[in-house]
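no rush on this but wanted to send it before i forget. what follows is a protein written twice so to speak, once as letters and once as structure tokens for the fold. mainly i need to know what kind of three dimensional shape the backbone takes. thanks a lot i owe you, the record is right below.
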Amino acid sequence: MKVENELEGQCVVITGGSSGIGLATAVRARDAGASRVVIAGRSPDKLGQAAAVVGKIADPRQLDVTDEDAVSRLFSDLGPIDHLVTAAAGTYRGKITESDTVAAKALFESKYWGQHHCMQ
């Protein structure tokens, strides 16, 4: 479904924008007329591939949302934005009863603190 001009002239920032829901959201923002779509993610290779999909309005930025200082620097460098989508997160497959504490804390770092850093 294409929604033309809904985001005309707007800047959309998407953490986790290099794959999955984040990339799909970036494409949707492009199709809705955004003038700039910042796709942030950890992998330079995946960012390059995602930027090719999104096209000329893509602004790929390497970012680990668990690094509060890096998040702060990114948003300081971007200037005004209109929308923020926080799709970045780690994943864990398996039974929670069999996960170790380190893996559980890493998920919380990205799923909670990563979003918190971006909102700040």
Notes: The chain has one domain: 11-119. The two ends are 32 Å apart (CA to CA).
